[in-house]
Amino acid sequence: MARFLSRALPVASALFVVSSILAQSDSCAQLKSNAARSQCANQQLETAEHDLNLAFDAALRNYTEGAVKRDEGQPLPKSEEKEQIRWEHTMLRKLRDSQRAWLAYRESACGTVEAMFEGGNIASVAVPFCKADLTAERTKFLRAYFREDR
């Protein structure tokens, strides 16, 4: 009995993950072939990555040199200008560093999902959905914390 459970539990977990993945996109779940579902998942990933790039570019624009001056319509006093430029450079560096770290995290996390399916057919659907989900979360984060209207 223990041997059966030790083999059945991973299979049940994988089936739960698969059903959760397909439920994320009703349009993809309705497709009949795995190839079509894979293509659908990759299209969703492409859309999510496009949205992420827009959000990241908007976040970077907040910290380009002179962004504060343009927003306020008047130049900063010289004493504050150097500090502002230093802060903007720090923010740009930190944003880029966090994006590189996040990309590495996404690859690692979704690599684990791929390993769960050991290269099976479902991996071609699960991995893009994993990346799309994490990408949507990152986009939401960037838009919440680094909006242009701040």
Structure, explained:
The structure is a single chain. By secondary structure, the chain is mostly helical. The chain has one domain (2-57, 95-145): Substrate Binding Domain Of Dnak, Chain:A, Domain 2 (Up-down Bundle). Helix content is 82%, strand content 0%. The protein has 6 helices and no strands. The longest helix has 39 residues, at 78-116. The protein starts with a helix and ends in a 5-residue tail after the last helix.
Largest sheet: none
Total domains, how many?
A: 1
- Count the DSSP helices: 6
Q: Number of DSSP strands?
A: 0
Low confidence ranges: 11-16
User: Distance N terminus to C terminus?
Assistant: 60 Å
What is the second-level CATH architecture? Up-down Bundle
Could you say which structural class the secondary elements and strand pairing correspond to?
mainly alpha
The share of residues in extended strands comes to under 5%
According to CATH, the fold-level topology is: Substrate Binding Domain Of Dnak, Chain:A, Domain 2
How much helix, percentage-wise, in residues? over 70%
Rg of Cα set: 21 Å
| Shape summary | elongated
Question: Would you state the CATH class?
Answer: Mainly Alpha
What is the H-and-E element order? HHHHHH
Mean pLDDT across all residues, rounded? 81
For this entry, what is the oligomeric state of its chains?
single chain
